[in-house]
Amino acid sequence: MSEAAKSMTKQEVRALIEKVGIVPVIRAASAEEARFAADCVRKGGVPIVEITMTVPGAVEVIREVARTMPEVLVGAGTVLSAEAATKCIDAGAQFLVTPGFNAATVAATRARDVLIVAGALTPSEIMEASAAGADFVKVFPCGSMGGPKYLQALRGPFPSVAFVPTGGVNLETAGEYIRAGAAALGVGGEMVLKDALRARDGDAISKMAALFVDLVRDARGAKG
Fold first, then answer.
1. What is the Cα–Cα distance from 128 to 125, expressed in whole angstroms?
2. Strand-pair partners of 23
3. What does the buried/exposed string (b/e) look like for 80-90 if buried means 16 or more CB atoms within 10 Å of the residue's CB?
4. Would you put residue 177 in left (φ > 0), alpha (ψ -120 to 50) or beta?
5. Residues with Cβ within 8 Å of residue 221, at least 6 apart in sequence
6. Separation of alpha carbons 81 and 49, rounded Å
7. Which residues are catalytic?
8. Among candidates 160, 152, 151, 156, which has minimal Cα distance to 129?
9. From CA 187, how far away is CA 146, in angstroms rounded?
10. How confident is the model over 2-35, as pLDDT tens digits?
């Protein structure tokens, strides 16, 4: 694990994710694109990035971002197995995100004392993820299940679960998700715009990141 990753405890990682309230999900066609996106998001005021394992050379991208951007909390997304989890943690990932629930992946991550955001969609899956010790539960694809209303419904039986809705989080729904009880938001292509990424229009991506920061702050203020 990189020195940057060692500098933060799991509790500090959790606190930062909750404070910022946004986890940018970076899916890119190349390692260079992913590094560019991470820098743009950082410049927009979000010191957190999730590099998905679908990015070519994702593990090395995680290693490089952890080494060259010590002010950025770097995590790995779309982690599908305990083996992949171990490789990401060794590269410097400070948190892991799974698209669905996998007990072995959660166990391997917890064994390394690294924060895990476990994917779940149904109440049964949320119960499994919570029982396994997930730090956050990623509700994916939340937008396809009713968006903020679905999250609000889940908050009834699961008031103590820290939810991170992902899929369908955009400028129109971000505030609603926060008011519905989201601990943080997983935001992908709505922030890391594909066209801007291809054109290397860093300003466009940074501006989107800043807009999401404002929306989360305003929604939390309105929530009281």
1. 5
2. 186
3. eebebbbbbbe
4. alpha
5. none
6. 20
7. 50, 138
8. 160
9. 17
10. 444 457 999 999 999 999 999 999 999 999 999 9
